[in-house]
Amino acid sequence: MRKTTIMRGKIGPEKRDGGPSVPSPKPEHGFVTGASWEKALSMFLLVKKAQGARERTIIDYRKVVGLFFKRFPDAFNS
Predict the structure, then answer these.
(1) Longest Cα separation, the chain
(2) Cα 70–47–44 angle (5° rounding)?
(3) Long-range contacts of 31-40 (CB under 8 A, 24+ apart)
(4) Phi and psi based region of residue 60 (left: phi greater than 0; alpha: psi -120 to 50; beta: remaining)
(5) Rounded CA separation 66/40 (Å)
(6) What's the distance, Cα to Cα, between the start and end of the chain in Å?
(7) Closest by CA position to 45, among listed 31, 35, 60
(8) In angstroms, rounded to a whole number, what is the distance separating the alpha carbons of residues 13 and 20?
(9) What span, in angstroms and rounded, lies between the C-alpha atoms of 33 and 25?
(10) What's the predicted TM-score (pTM) here?
(11) Quick one: three-class SS letters along 42-56?
């Protein structure tokens, strides 16, 4: 049986070197290449809601990320 660790609020099985394993974003994991930042934010917020984030947190994420991409419109594509 593999050991599980909790690090920065994330739970996952440990890698052989002792650190937590983090799955890479691959197409088979639902990662959509060529998506817009709006679509990526929508998916992120759905996950946060499912994890139980408060409505105010969701509103703040939407506001802050929107302001970021208003200031740096090409940031998502680089």
Answers:
(1) 48
(2) 20
(3) 36/76, 37/65, 37/69, 37/75, 37/76, 40/76
(4) alpha
(5) 12
(6) 41
(7) 60
(8) 6
(9) 10
(10) 0.55
(11) HHHHHHHHHCCCCHH
Q: What is the pLDDT of residue 78?
A: 75
Residue labelled with tokens 């070197």: 17
Tokens 């660790």 locate to: 5
**Residue pLDDT, tens place only, 18-42:** 655 555 555 454 555 667 999 999 9
Structure tokens at 27: 């197409």
Residue 61 token pair: 């994420």
Q: How far is CA 62 from the centre of its chain?
A: 13
Separation between Cα atoms, residue 11 and residue 32, nearest integer Å: 24
pLDDT of residue 77: 84
- Residue owning tokens 């099985």: 13
